[in-house]
Structure to design on (381 residues):
């Protein structure tokens, strides 16, 4: 029996329906969407239809969707793209949290090297960020607040909607949300007109790898004052040059559409699997990180006392594919900045692993896999 895939927060297997759509577009809509001829117009029309689908999730407009290679690029464009305007207006203070994805924290670190001041708010033990602490940190020279939608290590949903409400009167502050983990899975927090910039990735939604979007919402007739990070073409309002990957974009849109249409069924299935995971692992007495009432049902971050996370992953490699959190962080073998922010003791942080599944995870296979995991980890203890 091959190892079960339980790392869906890292990336998801492509939906067969989406795969068929991608192949169809490769075969039928291969023309450049920027070309003036009829075939080019067909490609362009497909791109516009895709924009409509993605924008509708957060009640945005299609021309506010900027296609990118994924959420990492979107985060960089949102943060570094605002820097020239911030320097021009002498507003070089940014408020964020210490649990953000590295694709937010590292661009901010670069801005700090350029003279920006970055305020980072720690999480509560529940894994949530206290909204009032963010609001209290905003100053007259604050240009940006960045708060993720769902944490990629714990699955904890952040109070984005409450923060957006609190910032309604602070017109000079832009609000960015990294929604890679929760877009089209949890709608309540991010469907708010005060969110200026929102990053999305296709491959977290059973869509194709290599495509994502930055939704840059207009304020009335005013566009967000972003500057491009790359040059060489006028695509995507001049903010992201390059030939648009029509097939990937169309597959992305279909993945979003399916996630929207099937959200309740998918969530119910994931919740049932979560209950099974917790029941099966209970004998190992795991320490679960993140308040269950605010955690998406497809992810579990837990520590197993006395077992180093890297050893657990290695020992289980022939049974299940799991991780220590962000794949981007795991590559560097660094400790979890998320759990550190939550005040988790180092011994528990070092033994924490992330198990994540989705609506395509088979229940019977999962049960068998969990039995094998429990047997192996009991022997290690």
């Amino acid at each position: 029996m091959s190892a079960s895939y339980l790392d869906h927060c890292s990336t998801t297997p492509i939906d067969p329906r989406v795969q068929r759509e991608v192949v169809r577009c490769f075969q039928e809509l291969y023309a450049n969407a920027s070309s003036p001829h009829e075939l080019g117009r067909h490609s362009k029309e497909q791109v516009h239809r895709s924009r409509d689908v993605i924008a509708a999730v957060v009640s945005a407009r299609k021309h506010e969707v900027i296609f990118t290679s994924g959420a990492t690029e979107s985060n960089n464009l949102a943060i570094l793209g605002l820097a020239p305007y911030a320097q021009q207006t002498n507003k070089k203070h940014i408020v964020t949290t210490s649990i953000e994805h590295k694709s937010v924290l590292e661009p901010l670190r670069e801005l700090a090297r350029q003279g920006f001041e970055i305020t980072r708010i720690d999480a509560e033990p529940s894994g949530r960020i206290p909204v009032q602490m963010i609001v209290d940190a905003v100053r007259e020279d604050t240009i940006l607040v960045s708060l993720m939608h769902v944490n990629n290590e714990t699955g904890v949903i952040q109070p984005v909607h409450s923060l957006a409400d609190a910032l309604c009167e602070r017109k000079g502050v832009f609000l960015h949300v990294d929604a890679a983990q929760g877009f089209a899975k949890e709608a309540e927090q991010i469907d708010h007109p005060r969110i200026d910039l929102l990053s999305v990735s296709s491959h977290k939604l059973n869509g194709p790898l290599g495509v994502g979007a930055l939704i840059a919402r207009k304020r009335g007739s005013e566009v967000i004052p972003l500057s491009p990070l790359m040059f060489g073409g006028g695509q995507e309002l001049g903010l992201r040059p390059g030939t648009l990957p029509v097939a990937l974009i169309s597959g992305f849109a279909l993945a979003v559409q399916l996630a929207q249409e099937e959200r309740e069924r998918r969530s119910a299935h994931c919740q049932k699997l979560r209950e099974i995971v917790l029941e099966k692992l209970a004998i190992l007495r795991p320490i679960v990180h993140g308040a269950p009432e605010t955690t998406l049902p497809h992810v579990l971050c837990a520590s197993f006392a006395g077992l180093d996370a890297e050893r657990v992953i290695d020992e289980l490699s022939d049974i299940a594919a799991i991780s220590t959190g962000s794949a981007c962080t795991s590559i560097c073998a660094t400790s979890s900045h998320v759990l550190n922010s939550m005040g988790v003791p180092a011994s528990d942080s070092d033994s924490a692993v992330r198990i994540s599944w989705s609506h395509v995870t088979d229940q019977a296979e999962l049960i068998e896999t969990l039995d094998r995991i429990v047997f192996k980890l009991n022997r290690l203890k």
In short: The first helix runs from residue 16 to 28. The mean pLDDT is 95. The CA atoms of residues 58 and 215 lie 9 Å apart. The first strand starts at residue 4 and ends at 5.
